[in-house]
Amino acid sequence: MSFRWPLVLAALCVALSVFCASQWVRESELRAELRSARVAERELREQSAEARRLGETYAAEIRRLDGRVGELKRAEEAVRKELTTSAAALITARQAVAELAPLRAAVANQNESIRRQNAVVTQQNDAIRTQNENLRKLVEERDTVVRLLNERTELLNKLNAGPAK
Predict the structure, then answer these.
(1) Dihedral of the CA atoms 11, 17, 20, 26 (nearest 10)?
(2) What are the C-alpha distances in Å from 114 to residues 83, 102, 111, 118?
(3) CA distance 70 to 68
(4) Beta-carbon neighbour count of residue 93 at 10 Å?
(5) Nearest Cα to 141, choosing from 149, 129, 153?
(6) How far is CA 22 from the centre of its chain?
(7) How confident is the model over 1-52, as pLDDT tens digits?
């Protein structure tokens, strides 16, 4: 038995070595798994922080867009009111234009009457000019006759005054 003890002891050492090696491999695998779990956890935390930051950014953008939608709805309502007002003004303007059509015809008739009256006035002015010319000629003839009469009267007065002396 003495030669067996070293063999048993050697076998036990080998078995212990195999057990230690398998423990070492198992622990290294566990450490690697733990390291990869920590890396995964860190990545998940970073992704979570990034997702939280994006969520806050998106929430702020949604609030901004909601505000903008409100502004646009108010602007749309204002435009609709203005459009309604403009449509009413357009209808009123069209009615006014329709009412102006007879007035335009009346103005056209009045203009035609004024043209005819102007033609009559022009004829009357021509007649007055002609009468004025005739009157000037008559006045000149009268002046000539009066001058002749005065000359003859003066001559007659001289003749009548001459023998009486």
Answers:
(1) -100
(2) 44, 18, 5, 6
(3) 5
(4) 10
(5) 149
(6) 84
(7) 577 888 888 888 999 999 999 999 999 999 999 999 999 999 999 999 999 9
